[in-house]
């Protein structure tokens, strides 16, 4: 049953030190900034963060890293033109990095949500990122065995939720949200807008409410809010 | 979970309707629930309208409503038993892999299944009698058996020949191993716990009498 | 690139004897009856059919079985009240049956479409359907290793297609269609209606056109057509 | 596939624009194509409007359009390089697991990638220099490398120090093994075939001259 939280702090009650947190977004698109800000305010430390990137600029995920709350980050592409916070922590030996090919990251998170124990995967065979991993040739093709990535907590940004927790996303901000929502003990979602149950066509629901524990409305920035009001 | 056994020796066994009511009453409000084909489907009729229970059907829907009637019948909207149903506000459709990922990933709170046999350790046999001329058909039974946080079995405690269906070890082909958490029958309700089988209620019988008819050690809750 | 075929026979050109055919549908919901009828007319023999059920009544999949064109069926639930065609063939030893748990069927088809070589699956552990299969305990839970199911051909029924092959389905008739479309060398889809590219909101596409080789319009039965016209 | 080599020794090497044009011209009409970050992205500018080529971006879209300008810029609509883009009629959005399943399942016809090195047998190195102070970042490179039916590499044939980037064996960390089918460079185009490396065109050089500068045996197409 999905709970509608009054604000991001209420939505993030009970995060423990040492938690593994799945954080949606591809760069800033779909990054749940208000939830990350609330995570910073919880003061939870020693976190493992799973996200495609390692923060951009000084806000959102980058701010969480700068606050020293993250012990390890699991991501596909940490280094970007604006990842100076991560870069400095990494070079100072203050954060652990596990690089995972982007497709493996997505599929391993899906596997956690789908009850798959492990899967043989074609990506990374013969590369340094498969070193030490079990391999197998199946039907003449080589595969690497990959394991699920589960979270204690998933932070996701969606566009619209109904009161049952059903979610719609917006354009390429969808990215990791739908798989991360399935793979955490507790999934918290920030949305631009909340509507009544029945207001979303059942044919177009992207994330069914069964995967959503808490929803909190964080109205979009001015530009988006105007766009939303227009249509 | 153990609760004090309530013995009701002075009434008859539960009717099918009472059994469905019993199970419906034990499903926590707001749960996501899958009801198996056949008898378990009738549990839906007894869920309180304000329970917030959301029904899953493995052929691709959450928020399934009651059976369709008259003009509501739509061949594209059926439940797992292929019976036309309706949708409720807040429903969602999805494809089969997503639907079973939902089950297998442990996201359903409760599923209710029929059974040929259940073992004291929670093994379930409900898909195949194993008779040589029977055509095997498993459907989603094995996925449901391992997929919900709680698997409730709904059955008569004895078959037509009077043989117990709660057994030390299943003789029918298994559906799942150690997956059943609670057994609801016409004459008694059982919790299957790590400590053993706990009788939580009896109807028209006593724990003592059950002990004489079952080969499974029984604890009173 | 998706081709729009003029009729079901044109859509089914080139089916070889011995082909593995994935057939969508759950009972009659979503069963691509007109495509199956065209498959019967191709005269292709010795087929392996992968479908949830083994035919209902005397039409569609049941008619294909009755025509003696199917050597083997892979399904989760052959026996139904109206599966007399299959039942008789099976009891006469004229068709081979492989029973697969429904979730394994769906996930194995998905795996084929997703490039997964094999996966460890929790369903069926300790049951007769896992006999002889590789098992493994991962994080204290037992799993069975399952392999992909690929098709030479997939026959799918959807509701609406655009000229790019993007598909929408209708209610629970969606079922196996989206995964089967990803898992065959050639995917042929019958739809109630064809619309221009751009007429389907990109947010609500269920099967992207990349998975669709041929589309053919088979207007729905009278009742549905009326319903469609009304809204 | 082999084609007769067209030697064009009397012109200069291809410019970046000519190289992108060359690749665009070789992409079959109606193909589903992923263009890697950086130089490969520019191939899109040279696809014929009626080519029917559909662009995939691994962050969850088919039918990606050109870069967004002015009011078109929407932070929720970006390509794999996080550059704002537009959508075309018939586009579709999907989540990351579906997007990469599409790649890994072999549904893309062509992907075009940059490279540090390519071996004569099609090994690709394009994600990591392996230098001790470099921060590793792989993104979708390894998935793209194994995921398309044809992987085209777009690069200069020699690095700034004049070292060949088409090599007998990659010295940089690998992205994928035996995955590259064609190499487009400023001075020559190569098909990597089971029989060996076939030169299909030269620009400002000859096959003979290339033989003297590369450690990979070259066949003339």
TrEMBL record, chains A, C:
Looking up PANTHER family in the UniProt record yields: ACETATE COA-TRANSFERASE SUBUNIT ALPHA, KETOACID-COENZYME A TRANSFERASE
- Is Transferase tagged as a keyword? yes
Q: Which family does it belong to?
A: Belongs to the 3-oxoacid CoA-transferase subunit A family.
Q: Which Pfam families match?
A: CoA_trans
Arranged from A to Z, the UniProt key words for this protein are: Transferase
What GO MF terms are annotated? CoA-transferase activity
Record-given protein name: 3-oxoacid CoA-transferase subunit A
Q: What is the lineage of its organism?
A: Bacteria, Bacillati, Actinomycetota, Actinomycetes, Propionibacteriales
TrEMBL record, chains B, D:
Keyword set, alphabetical order: Transferase
- Family to which the UniProt record says this protein belongs: Belongs to the 3-oxoacid CoA-transferase subunit B family.
**Is-annotated flag, keyword Transferase?**
yes
One Pfam match = CoA_trans
Task: Give any GO molecular function from the UniProt entry.
Answer: CoA-transferase activity
Q: Where are the transmembrane segments?
A: none
Q: Which PANTHER family match?
A: KETOACID-COENZYME A TRANSFERASE (PTHR13707), SUCCINYL-COA:3-KETOACID COENZYME A TRANSFERASE SUBUNIT B-RELATED (PTHR13707:SF57)
Q: Which InterPro entries match?
A: 3-oxoacid_CoA-transf_B, CoA_trans_fam_I, NagB/RpiA_transferase-like
Q: What is this protein called?
A: 3-oxoacid CoA-transferase subunit B
Native source organism of the sequence = Nocardioides pocheonensis
């Amino acid at each position: 049953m999905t709970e509608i939280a009054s604000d991001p702090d209420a939505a993030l009650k009970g995060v423990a030190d040492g938690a593994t947190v799945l954080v949606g977004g591809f760069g800033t698109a779909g990054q749940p900034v208000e939830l990350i800000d609330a995570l910073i305010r919880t003061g939870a430390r020693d976190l493992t963060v799973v996200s495609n990137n390692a923060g951009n600029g000084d806000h959102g995920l980058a701010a969480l890293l700068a606050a020293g709350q993250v012990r390890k980050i699991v991501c596909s592409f940490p280094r970007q033109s604006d990842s100076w916070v991560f870069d400095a922590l990494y070079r100072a030996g203050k954060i652990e990095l596990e690089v995972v090919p982007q497709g493996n990251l997505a599929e391993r998170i899906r596997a956690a949500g789908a009850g798959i124990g492990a899967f043989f995967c074609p990506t990374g065979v013969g590369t340094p990122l498969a070193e030490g991993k079990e391999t197998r040739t199946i039907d003449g093709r080589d595969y690497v065995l990959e394991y699920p990535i589960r979270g204690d907590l998933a932070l996701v940004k969606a566009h619209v939720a109904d009161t049952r927790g059903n979610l719609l996303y917006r354009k390429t901000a969808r990215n990791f949200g739908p798989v991360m929502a399935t793979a955490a003990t507790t999934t918290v979602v920030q949305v631009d807008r909340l509507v009544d149950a029945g207001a979303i066509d059942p044919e177009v629901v992207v994330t069914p409410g069964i995967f959503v524990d808490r929803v909190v409305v964080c109205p979009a920035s001015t530009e988006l809010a105007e766009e939303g009001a227009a249509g | 979970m153990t609760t004090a056994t309530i013995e009701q020796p002075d009434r008859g066994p539960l009717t099918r309707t009472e059994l469905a009511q019993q199970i419906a009453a034990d499903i926590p409000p707001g749960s996501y629930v899958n009801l198996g084909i056949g008898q378990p489907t009738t549990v839906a009729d007894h869920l309180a309208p304000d329970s917030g229970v959301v029904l899953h059907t493995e052929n691709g829907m959450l928020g399934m409503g009651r059976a369709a009637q008259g003009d509501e019948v739509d061949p594209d909207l059926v439940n797992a038993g292929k019976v036309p149903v309706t949708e409720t506000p807040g429903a969602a459709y999805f494809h089969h892999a997503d639907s079973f990922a939902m089950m297998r990933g442990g996201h359903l709170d409760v599923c209710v299944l029929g059974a040929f046999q259940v073992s004291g350790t929670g093994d379930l046999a409900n898909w195949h009698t194993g008779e040589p001329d029977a055509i095997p058909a498993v459907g989603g039974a094995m996925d449901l058996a391992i997929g919900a946080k709680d698997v409730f079995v709904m059955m008569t405690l004895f078959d037509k020949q009077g043989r117990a269906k709660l057994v030390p070890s299943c003789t029918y082909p298994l559906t799942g191993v150690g997956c059943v958490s609670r057994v609801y029958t016409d004459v008694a309700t059982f919790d299957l716990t790590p400590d053993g089988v706990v009788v939580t209620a009896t109807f028209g019988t006593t724990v003592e009498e059950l002990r004489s008819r079952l080969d499974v050690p029984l604890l009173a809750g």
